[in-house]
UniProtKB/TrEMBL annotation:
Keywords of the record: Glycosidase, Hydrolase
GO BP annotations listed: carbohydrate metabolic process
Organism: Agrocybe chaxingu
A molecular function GO annotation: beta-glucosidase activity
Record-listed E.C. numbers: 3.2.1.21
PROSITE patterns: GLYCOSYL_HYDROL_F1_1 (PS00572)
Region of interest called Disordered, as start-end residue ranges on this chain: 495-523
Record's protein name: beta-glucosidase
Amino acid sequence: MSQLSRLWALATRACQTSTVRWPCKDAGSEPKFSFAFCRVQRRETTWERVSIDVSEPRRGGTRKEGRKDGKDGDVATDSYRLWKEDVALLKEYGVKAYRFSLSWSRIIPLGGRDDPVNPQGIEFYSNLIDALLANGITPFVTLYHWDLPQALHDRYGGWLNKDEIVKDYTNYARRFWGYGRGVFAPGRSSDRERSQEGDSSTEPWIVGHNVILSHAHAVKLYREQYKPTQKGQIGITLNGDWAMPYDDNPENIDAAQHALDFAIGWYGDAVHLGFYPPYMREVLGNRMPDFSHDEWAIVKGSSDFYGMNTYTTNLCRAGGDDEFQGNVDYTFTRPDGTQLGTQAHCAWLQDYPDGFRSLLNYLWKRYKLPIFVTENGFAVKGENDMPIEEALKDSDRVHYFQGTTAALLTAIHEDGVDIRSYFPWSFLDNFEWADGYLTRFGVTYVDYETQKRYPKDSAKFLLKFFKEHDSSRTDTPKTDSAPTAAKIVDQANLSEVSSTSTVKTDTPPSPAAKPKEPKAVKARGFKARISRYLSSIVALVKA
């Protein structure tokens, strides 16, 4: 084990689980506010706008339905109302930490640095964090997870406007501690079947560039003004899957590295090493923005750890035409016609635990930072169409977690990878972005009609795993042995990699030792608590 107890945990995101309401306009009238909106004071985000159904003109619908099932995240799993039940269930599952995201538009409804703050939003997160701590669960807080306030996109173009978004994001961080294919918010694309505005050849790289700079400024602020007294960690979480050559053809071996350059190196190399991958510059030319010398000084090293969202492994062949994949063709079919692993409900996901171990090793050798596995999960094929009794017996998901947890332990004990947490995705079934409610990733089944929660077999497996590998327990034997995964060929390019020192995570204060706060100062205390558990997140789209 590492110097601290590993965080066996679960994860969700705000706009996939929490109640969402915003003011609507009826024809010929001023904006009207529903009771729910007055209660939560939360404004529309880019994800709500993308989810608009054109059959609802009261919401200003002007584009095609954004979800495969035509539904939105208005209620999702109703975690805004049912958060106490969710905390109790997390405790029952035996998790050590819970990763959730803040909703920017719940805290600052209009998003901007000069816009008013919503005290009800602060109180909601303050109560949630207090309850987690009281139950021995460490909050692992994500500042931003794709849900930009729509007001900022309308006001100045959102992430496309570097000067404005960096200032507004830094202000949001100070107070509280998808632009490519048109599938993810804000839905801009060169494909006019999807969107009437946007340029897929330039906008994704501009947005990514501005996201990195905004993150770096938020980290600089935290380190200068908060870390000296709070001694917490802050970092960025990146989405990226393992890439394997389709065969031993040298072009396909290169293609696998090119895929990693785009999927991981775009953000990872910039933040951790201080440069963009040379292959990206070669492909994109002058479409790839660059930072000034002073900006690179802020960007490089702007994360205390590597936050790893990963789900699958792709076999890679040269000759693809998708720039988001590095002009690499992805497949799950081996040269002999067999499949890499069990197929999930979503076409982009198959079960292949050896790739999980390989990716852990690649990231450790390339960046030399402790790794927090912040998302990892599986959607069982056809689960949404199953009777509840059948859906609870999610053997394919159990098999997935058996493989990834075994690979995780092997990476720790045999390969020496410094892994600090494992957050399976997800705690609950929820609103799965472009798939709406058709795809279920949860280890807890949610009946969306009644909002009742039912633990699946995968939750029972994880509960057993958490207990067996809880270093703070003395009543259960540890079974850290794991099946040996296939040995890994080191594909990391280490020629320009600089080692960064590991920063220890603070142990959260004991709830028993913490004096009860007067209600009048609760919001102020929230600022200190939330920044202590801060993780500034950006997830690259896997679509």
